[in-house]
């Protein structure tokens, strides 16, 4: 991670975090924070590697920031000094992008401190609910003595029913996460949060791309611009080459950047995830060898210590296995950053429902709707009539619940909880069904970085989840992504001249289901013992009899219910390491 900071916010009354204390400063130096910035009552401590940019208003940007021409922002001359905090936030979101956190002291009569996290969420940001501090790394607060970790059991009960849900709440009392595209306002030790970037703005009619050609041109220039701007910043890169369309597009954009690029792909000991043929095409296009590593069953450890600053359970045994191999490969290659095509399915409009056809009917009429239904039938290899029936159903019942609770293997007496809503779910009523689903899915991608502990060792770049790419892809109507009976059609068209033909025409990709199933068969009894003797069972959350019965039940073909055991073990493991 290239951005590490701890900001002590102005607060009334005594505080155990005195920025002027020699003892406190010495503790932070021991944690690698050596630089101090003072912003009208805010003391900001950062690592020497953290990029900082002072603003004329007295605020500061922490992280990498670029203008809309994809040039790094090295001076703040173009940012007005007379704007209010709200106006300045809007100005930066409109004219710049990047991976950053913005800190603004109270100005004029506002009397409040504002913290903004950019819409990509690349820089971590958690805060104390009493408004005392904001940090990228909760261990900086705990190890410097200003916060004591205590488990938030209400969150744990909610998380067991909605695993991997992205919410403000965390697994620790008194700690919340500032979600991407949101602002924290602190006044007199009272904290409030509001969204400041709205994805639904970009699906409005006046924002739409009107032709597939225009859409493809804009998507290509934006993805290229973002990827190359980040690459020019990092200079040494390990590309996690999955062999799919999205990582291949990112790899194509890295050509000619001047960055030193290495390529890694993972292979499992069971069939289903050997992508060397396709990943090799990415590496060949970059003129580098492909590093293929075997993802062994022994690498998956469901009792590994999670990152000390992670405020929520997020890393499964499978993710631990991937992480170790990627970190070893990145260390051996001597790179500073990791790149992947993470989020590509979502931003490139790969919806699993018939909602794009419903959008086409509502937006352009029955003729475009029928054409989209035909495309749906080709993509999903079903009859036109089935696609049409599902599309009509979407027209009649356009909305879906963003999340449904999973109460399996939990105590029957446990109350079913309502899902905590994400701010991006608050969509205008006129939002089309497909656009609504795309935005809900986009909110779901915010967990990707949480599940990758390697981001604390290396900068983890997900160019396809950057603010400009999200905005540009949202401007593409949902039905355009299905043109010609191909999913992600606009992305395929946009990069048709640089994609290997074998990748461009792919309709499916390998997955790790058989590998994860193999892990389960080898470790299910150990996971069972962990859960029936663990903290979740002691708190009346997990049903030990249901867990024991589930483990003894044979799995049917294509049965993925065993993934529930990995989520429960992940939460149990996280809880055990909070003491």
From TrEMBL:
<dbReference type="InterPro" id="IPR014729">
    <property type="entry name" value="Rossmann-like_a/b/a_fold"/>
</dbReference>
<dbReference type="Pfam" id="PF00733">
    <property type="entry name" value="Asn_synthase"/>
</dbReference>
<dbReference type="InterPro" id="IPR051786">
    <property type="entry name" value="ASN_synthetase/amidase"/>
</dbReference>
<dbReference type="InterPro" id="IPR029055">
    <property type="entry name" value="Ntn_hydrolases_N"/>
</dbReference>
<comment type="pathway">
    <text>Amino-acid biosynthesis; L-asparagine biosynthesis; L-asparagine from L-aspartate (L-Gln route): step 1/1.</text>
</comment>
<dbReference type="InterPro" id="IPR001962">
    <property type="entry name" value="Asn_synthase"/>
</dbReference>
<feature type="domain" description="Asparagine synthetase">
    <location>
        <begin position="231"/>
        <end position="576"/>
    </location>
</feature>
<protein>
    <recommendedName>
        <fullName>asparagine synthase (glutamine-hydrolyzing)</fullName>
        <ecNumber>6.3.5.4</ecNumber>
    </recommendedName>
</protein>
């Amino acid at each position: 991670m290239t951005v590490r900071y701890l900001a002590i916010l102005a607060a009334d009354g005594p505080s155990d975090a005195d920025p002027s204390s020699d003892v406190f400063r010495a503790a932070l130096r021991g944690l690698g924070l050596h630089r101090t910035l003072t912003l009208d009552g805010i003391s900001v401590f950062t690592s020497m590697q953290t990029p900082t940019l002072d603003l004329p208003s007295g605020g500061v940007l922490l992280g990498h920031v670029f203008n809309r021409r994809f040039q790094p922002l090295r001076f703040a001359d173009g940012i007005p000094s007379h704007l209010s905090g709200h106006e300045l936030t809007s100005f930066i979101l409109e004219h710049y992008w990047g991976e950053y956190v913005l800190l603004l002291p109270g100005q004029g009569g506002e009397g409040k401190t504002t913290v903004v996290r950019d819409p990509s969420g690349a820089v971590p940001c958690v805060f104390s609910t009493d408004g005392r501090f904001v940090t990228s790394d909760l261990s900086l607060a705990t190890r410097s003595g200003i916060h004591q970790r205590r488990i938030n059991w209400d969150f744990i009960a909610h998380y067991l029913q909605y695993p991997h849900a992205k919410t403000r709440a965390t697994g620790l009392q008194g700690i919340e996460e500032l979600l991407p595209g949101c602002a924290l306002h602190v006044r007199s030790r009272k904290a409030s949060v509001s969204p400041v970037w709205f994805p639904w703005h970009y699906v409005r009619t006046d924002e739409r791309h009107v032709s597939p050609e225009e859409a493809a041109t804009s998507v290509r220039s934006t993805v290229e611009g973002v990827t190359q701007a980040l690459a020019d910043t990092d200079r040494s890169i390990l590309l996690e080459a999955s062999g799919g369309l999205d990582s291949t597009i990112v790899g194509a954009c890295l050509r000619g950047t001047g960055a030193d690029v290495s390529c890694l792909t993972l292979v499992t000991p069971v069939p289903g995830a050997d992508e060397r043929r396709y990943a090799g095409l990415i590496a060949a296009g970059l003129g580098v060898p492909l590093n293929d590593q075997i993802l062994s069953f022994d690498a998956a450890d469901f009792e590994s210590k999670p990152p000390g600053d992670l405020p929520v359970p997020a890393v499964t045994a499978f993710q631990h296995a991937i992480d170790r191999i990627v970190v070893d490969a990145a260390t051996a290659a001597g790179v500073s950053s990791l790149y992947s095509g993470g989020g590509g399915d979502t931003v490139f409009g790969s919806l699993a429902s018939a909602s794009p056809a419903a959008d086409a009917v509502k937006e352009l009429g029955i003729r475009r709707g029928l054409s989209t239904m035909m495309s749906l039938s080709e993509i999903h290899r079903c009859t036109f009539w089935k696609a049409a029936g599902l599309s009509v159903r979407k027209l009649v019942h356009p909305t879906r619940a963003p999340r449904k609770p999973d109460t399996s293997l939990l105590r029957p007496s446990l109350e079913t909880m309502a899902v905590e809503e994400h701010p991006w779910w608050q969509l205008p009523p006129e939002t089309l069904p497909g656009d609504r689903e795309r935005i809900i899915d986009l909110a779901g991608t915010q967990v990707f970085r949480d599940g990758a502990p390697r981001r604390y060792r290396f900068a983890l770049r997900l160019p396809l989840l950057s603010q400009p790419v999200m905005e540009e892809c949202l401007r593409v109507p949902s039905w355009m992504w299905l043109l010609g009976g191909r999913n992600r059609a606009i992305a395929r068209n946009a990069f048709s001249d640089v994609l290997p033909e074998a990748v461009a025409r792919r309709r499916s990709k390998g997955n790790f289901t058989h590998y994860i199933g193999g892990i389960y068969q080898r470790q299910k009894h150990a996971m069972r013992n962990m859960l029936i003797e663990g903290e979740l069972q002691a708190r009346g959350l997990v049903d030990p009899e249901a867990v024991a019965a589930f483990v003894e039940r044979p799995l049917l073909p294509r049965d993925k219910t065993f993934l529930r055991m990995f989520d429960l073990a992940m939460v149990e493991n996280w809880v055990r390491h909070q003491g």
